[in-house]
Amino acid sequence: MGDLSRAQGDLHQLQEELRSLRPLKDELGFSQRRTEELGRRLVEQEAAVKQLNASNEQLEAKANELLTAKQQLELALTAAKSSVTAQEQVVVSMLERFSATVPSPDASAKDPVEGAEKMTQRNDKNPTVTGT
């Protein structure tokens, strides 16, 4: 009978251990499901990161293209400004030459011969130099 009592005691002890292990088993199952879910999310996020990196590379390339275009436009603008400045100087120079050779309206209106003589005298004093 002692063997039976001992066996019953062992059985009772094993049943208690089994009861204490059930919550751990449930927790382990939950943790495994959670780990699988996190693994799927990680794979999805890695794919998203890969796609974002590709988009980032494309955007950086486009930004570099735009920067190059901006620099070229700035150079063209500088050249255009220089050209305009040079053209303005030529126009000012031409206007100065024309205004120096045109007789005053008062002198030629009073006496055309006297106006012509004054213009000839003025041209003799200030000979015009052509740049051609």
Could you characterize what this model shows?
This protein has 132 residues and is mostly helical. Helices cover 91% and strands 0% of the residues. It contains three helices and no strands. It has helices at 2-101, 105-110, 112-125. The longest helix is centred in the middle third of the chain and has 100 residues, at 2-101. The radius of gyration is 50 Å and the shape is rod-shaped.
Write the layout of secondary structure elements.
Layout: H1 2-101, H2 105-110, H3 112-125
Keywords:
132 residues, mainly alpha, 3 helices, rod-shaped
Number of strands: 0
Query: H/E series, N to C?
Result: HHH
Q: What profile does the largest beta sheet have?
A: none
Strand content: under 5%
Query: What's the gyration radius in Å?
Result: 50 Å
Q: What structural category characterises the helix and strand content?
A: mainly alpha
Separation of the first and last Cα atoms: 138 Å
Unreliable residue runs: none
